[in-house]
Amino acid sequence: MLVLVEATAAGRAVALALVLLLPAVPAGAGALLRLQPSMPHVCAEQELTLVGRRQPCVRAFSRTVPVWKPGCGRQPWCVSQERRTSYYTSYRQVYAAETRTVLRCCPGWSQQPGAQGCLAAECRAGLCFNGGSCEPGSARPCRCPPGFQGPRCQHDVNECAAGNGGCEGHCCNTVGGFYCRCPPGRQLHGDGKTCRDVDECQMHNGGCHHRCVNTPGSYVCECRPGFRLHADGRTCLAVPSCAVGNGDCQHSCVQLTVTQHRCQCRPEFQLQEDGRRCVRRNPCSDRNGGCMHTCQALRGLATARCHAGYRLAGRPQGPAKVGRRIPRESLAASRCPGPYVDECVVGLARCAHGCLNTQGSFKCVCHAGYELGADGQQCLP
Predict the structure, then answer these.
(1) Residue numbers of the domain that contains 350
(2) Could you tell me which residue ranges the EGF-like domain spans (predicted)?
(3) Given a cut of 70, is residue 342 above it in pLDDT?
(4) What pLDDT was estimated at residue 171?
């Protein structure tokens, strides 16, 4: 935007001051050389300046002049007044505010006569940041404390970028420093860089109900036999022993308590010494199966058989079963009382004269005047 200022004495003084401030090209060996962007410690800055220039302006003015005119009545010529306008060009000083790029020495540096750039360090208040100290005459104007860098110590050093800062775990960069952090389950060692495992079981048993087992970087909870781990990974719940593999029983599992049980076999089977397996038992081995004469195992049940000359007393209520007490009324069916078989009637005696039945046997008799022969059946005179 142009700012117009009349060419007054004050305006000309400002213009003269601006001209004097403009950089000039020096001549001679002791003069300062013009700074270039490629020179060391040369900074480009934007500055607002007033630039003056002459602007032409066309002006006009009017005046009345005498003019001789013919035909003025009785006289051939006469003088009359006419208005005439004159134009001329004048100049005025105009100033405009413009932004331009100016090359100057970076803060903390100055240019010496004949030097190619700004090579002389200079100290002044506020030159160095973040606790840096100024060193006049050195190649670097500021000496930076650990954790900062740059000509004026204005930049932070990322210690984690090189070798993870020496941290075994995670390196966290901060302004002017850094610190190491370990993953969960591990804690920082005294050197501030290495990590060591944390034994979570040392404090409150790791929160485990039964047993805590430490692992690298973590831990796990375990339960005693007869218990299972809850979904929370810490609490142990009792498991009925019969619910796990039938308690390792071959036949039936009888739950006594939450963690105790006993095995039970089906009828006609008996439990082995290991308390788990079942074998078929011989029903006749226990008091002859309740039979009076002969006991015969039939399909795991005791069946009574009588000796020759005997038969079972009545129809049995059912064969004696293994592991069951034989009822009194069924016990009679397992006995073989006599005589139930009359050998004289069925023709088993084969006596010559007469037959006399006895309990469980028979006896041949002869008529008067006869005697029984050696075979016990024939009669001799």
Answers:
(1) 343-380
(2) 119-154, 197-237
(3) yes
(4) 94
Q: How far apart (Å, rounded) are the C-alpha atoms in residues 35 and 104?
A: 7
Q: Is residue 145 part of a domain?
A: no
- What are the tokens at 54? 């002459």
Quick check: bond before 339 cis, omega within 30?
yes
Higher pLDDT among residues 110 and 11, named by residue? 110
Tell whether pTM > 0.70. no
Task: Pull the structure tokens for residue 135.
Answer: 């060193």
Torsion angle, alpha carbons of 188, 190, 191, 192, to 10: 40
The reported pLDDT for the residue numbered 346 is 72
| Number of helical H runs and strand E runs in the chain | 3, 28
92 & 10 share domain: yes
Q: Determine the residue type at 375.
A: D
- The verdict on 287 and 275 lying in the same domain is no
Dihedral sign (CA 346, 348, 353, 358): negative
Instruction: Give pLDDT tens digits for 318-340.
Output: 444 333 334 444 444 445 554 45
Can you give the pLDDT at residue 20? Answer: 42
Q: What is the CATH number of the domain that holds 166?
A: 2.10.25.10
Distance CA 202, CA 197 (A): 12
Give CA torsion, residues 95, 99, 105, 106, to 10 deg. Answer: 140
Q: Which token pair is 308?
A: 């020759």
Domain membership flag for residue 146: no
**Are 359 and 346 within 8 A, CB to CB?**
no
3 touches 97 (CB < 8 A): yes
Give me the count of residues in the chain: 381
In a domain? residue 318: yes
**β-bridge mates for residue 105, sequence order:** 42
Cβ contact 193:204 at 8 Å: no
What total number of domains does the chain contain?
A: 6
Token pair, residue 151, equals 């000509």
Claim to verify: residue 253 and residue 292 sit in the same structural domain: no
For 374, the token pair is: 């050696």
